[in-house]
Structures are given as structure tokens and as C-alpha cells.
């Protein structure tokens, strides 16, 4: 058993050890031919089994042994147990005086002459010191236990304060991020949507009109998602909420159809998939099509979602680009995030170029993931 990082002796085993020490002390100090002394020593030894549950009765039961013989080990052990559990110092003082009295007074009392003489004063002082020693030791152990509890409480309070401070800093950062998203990003995306709408109305080129329509639709969708994100960022301290209504595979057709590139979708599933798996598939396809649109202009893509042998495989493959890619800003975190999401669900994600200068991305997930 360990307590506070240190090894401790189990309580029952410790009780047995104290009883053994008391019996050994009685065997050495007690005249076994005297029944009263033997009975008192045996009672005192057995009383130590009560020291943790009832320390005061245990101490009282050990007093006859201290009165009738020199076997005081049981009484001192009981005094220590009482001092380690009680906070009544007056009670400890009375017990120490009672022990000193039993230690000093001869038993059986003489029939003639005084029971206590002046010469017994040193014995009284020795008895008081002997009784006070386990009492002070028990109080020291109790104080140490209280100090450890207080330190644990202070540590817990300090950790809670640090957590609150971190939450406060996070709330400020979230509020600042929300302002930046609202004042800068939303404004720029709005301008893109307006310019795309103007181009959609003014141009006569069908390809340009179709591109402007796609740009305007994606801009409006991005603005809606930004509004959701800003509202969540500003609601710091509230219960966790989803940034947007989470996508499902039912929305995958709309995603592929509106991705702005020529893409085919094929879905072959045996039944409904868990919500986390559906979200992972949707986000993977979304990220893959976005990368195709950014890095492989003019290429075509094929999206396949198939369920086989307790797993669902999602594959996105695109052909080689027919036009040079425009330099666009990127943090290169997309595939890292997808791979981490896949690992959390017990799956794996692989990505790399194909032999015909295209690109292939494959996500494997267990269907039973939740």
C-alpha cells in the first residue's frame, strides 16, 4: 500500500505487530504466576485491536496493566493512538496524569503506612515524562497529517486558479480572434461575393458566368460559416457547441457537385455509419477537393466511398493538372488535421502522387468507431 508516494504498513498487520510487542513486554515484565497481572497484561494486549476504531476505550482497558505491573508498552501504544486521533488536549493531559499515577502508585497498596511518599516524586516525574512522550508524538503525527491535507488543498486551489487564469487568457484570445474574423475576413469575403455577383450579371461568357456563380455561392457559404464561428468564439465560458451543423454523407453529393471542378461520386454502403465517421469522410472529401481545385487546376477527380469487411474506405483521385497552379496562401495543415482525425477514430490516412502525375488520397476507418 502507498500513501502520498510512500509505502505504508496495512492497518491490520500493524495491529498484530503492536499486540505482539505488548505480549513480549508482558512476558518479560509480568510475573505469570500472579493471575491479576497476567489477566491485566492479556486484556491490555487485546485492547490494542481497538486503538484505531475506539482509541479512548482502548487506553482505559490498558490502564490496569500499568497499575498492576511494569508492562506499560500497551498503555503507551494506546496513548499514542489516542493522541493521533483526538484534538482534545485536556483529555490527553488527564490521561498522561492518570498513567503517571498508575506508574507511581504501588499495587497492591500497603496496608500500613502512606501509599505515596516524598521519595516517589521522581517516579511521578518519570511517569509524566513517559506518558507525555507518546502523547506528543501522536500530536505531531496528527499535525503532520493536517499539514499534508492543507498543502493538498492549497495545491488544488492553486491549480484551479491557474486553470481560471488560462481560461481568462483563452477568452480574451477568442474575443480578439472573433473581432479579427468579423472585421477583416468577413469584410473581404463579402467583397468577393459582391464582385462575383457583379461579374455574374455583366459577363456574356458562359464559362465566366459559371465561375462567377460558383465563387459567389462559395463566398456566401463561407460567410455563413464565419458567422457561426464568430458567435461561438464570442460565447466563451458557455457550454461547448458545434461551430456549424455537422455534415453527414447525405450532403456529400451537394459538396461534390458544387466543388467547382469536374468530379464523379460513387457511394457503396451497407447501412448508416456512425456520426463521427460520416463527419470524417465529409471533411476528408472536402479537403481533398479543395486541394485539387488549388493545386491541380483543369484536372478531374473521382470520389469513392465503399464499405467492406467492417471498414469504410474513402478514396479521392485526381488526374494531372492541365493549367499551372496559382500561388495561394496555405498553412499546410489540412492533411495533418485529417490524419489526426483518422487516428482518433482508429483509422489511417494515406496520400501521395500517382504514376500519371495525379494525386491520390485514401482514408480507411472502422465502421464501429464512435
- The oligomeric state of the chains shown is single chain
Number of helices: 10
Quick one: CATH class of the largest domain? Alpha Beta
Please give the number of β-strands: 7
What shape does the CA trace take?
elongated
CATH superfamily of the largest domain: Histidine kinase-like ATPase, C-terminal domain
Beta fraction: 5-15%
Summarize model confidence as the mean pLDDT.
Answer: 80
| Main sheet summary | 5 strands, mixed
CATH fold assignment of the largest domain: Heat Shock Protein 90
How would you describe the overall organization of this protein?
There is one protein chain. The protein is an alpha+beta fold. The chain folds into three domains: 2-116, no CATH class; 169-234; 249-366, Histidine kinase-like ATPase, C-terminal domain (Heat Shock Protein 90). Helix content is 61%, strand content 11%. It has a five-stranded mixed sheet with strand order 3-4-5-7-6. Strands 1-2 form a two-stranded antiparallel sheet. Strand 3, helix 9 (275-295) and strand 4 form a beta-alpha-beta unit. The chain is elongated and about 125 Å long.
Amino acid at each position: 500500500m502507498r500513501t502520498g508516494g510512500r509505502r505504508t504498513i496495512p492497518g491490520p498487520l500493524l495491529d498484530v505487530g503492536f499486540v505482539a510487542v505488548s505480549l513480549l513486554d508482558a512476558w518479560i515484565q509480568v510475573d505469570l504466576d500472579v493471575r491479576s497481572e497476567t489477566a491485566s497484561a492479556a486484556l491490555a494486549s487485546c485492547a490494542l485491536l481497538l486503538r484505531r476504531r475506539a482509541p479512548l476505550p482502548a487506553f482505559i482497558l490498558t490502564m490496569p496493566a500499568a497499575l498492576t505491573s511494569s508492562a506499560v508498552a500497551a498503555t503507551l501504544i494506546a496513548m499514542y493512538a489516542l493522541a493521533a486521533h483526538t484534538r482534545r488536549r485536556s483529555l490527553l493531559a488527564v490521561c498522561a496524569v492518570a498513567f503517571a499515577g498508575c506508574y507511581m502508585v504501588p499495587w497492591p497498596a500497603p496496608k500500613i503506612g502512606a501509599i505515596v511518599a516524598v521519595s516517589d516524586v521522581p517516579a511521578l516525574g518519570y511517569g509524566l515524562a513517559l506518558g507525555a512522550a507518546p502523547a506528543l508524538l501522536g500530536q505531531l503525527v496528527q499535525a503532520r497529517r493536517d499539514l499534508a491535507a492543507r498543502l493538498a488543498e492549497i495545491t488544488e486551489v492553486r491549480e484551479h486558479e491557474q486553470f481560471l487564469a488560462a481560461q481568462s487568457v483563452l477568452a480574451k484570445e477568442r474575443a480578439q480572434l472573433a473581432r479579427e474574423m468579423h472585421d477583416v475576413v468577413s469584410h473581404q469575403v463579402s467583397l468577393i461575393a459582391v464582385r462575383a455577383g457583379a461579374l455574374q450579371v455583366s459577363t456574356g461568357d458562359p464559362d465566366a458566368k459559371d465561375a462567377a456563380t460558383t465563387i459567389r455561392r462559395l463566398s456566401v457559404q463561407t460567410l455563413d460559416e464565419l458567422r457561426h464561428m464568430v458567435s461561438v468564439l464570442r460565447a466563451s465560458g458557455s457550454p461547448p457547441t458545434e461551430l456549424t451543423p455537422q455534415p453527414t454523407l447525405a450532403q456529400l453529393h451537394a459538396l461534390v457537385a458544387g466543388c467547382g471542378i469536374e468530379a464523379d461520386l460513387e457511394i457503396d454502403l451497407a447501412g448508416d455509419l456512425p456520426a463521427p465517421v460520416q463527419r470524417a469522410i465529409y471533411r476528408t472529401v472536402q479537403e481533398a477537393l479543395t486541394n485539387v481545385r488549388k493545386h491541380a487546376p483543369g484536372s478531374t477527380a473521382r470520389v469513392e466511398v465503399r464499405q467492406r469487411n467492417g471498414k469504410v474506405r474513402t478514396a479521392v483521385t485526381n488526374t494531372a493538372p492541365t493549367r499551372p497552379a496559382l500561388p495561394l496562401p496555405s498553412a499546410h495543415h489540412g492533411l495533418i488535421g485529417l490524419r489526426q482525425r483518422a487516428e482518433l477514430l482508429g483509422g489511417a490516412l494515406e496520400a501521395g502522387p500517382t504514376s500519371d502525375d495525379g494525386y491520390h488520397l485514401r482514408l480507411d476507418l472502422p465502421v464501429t468507431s464512435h
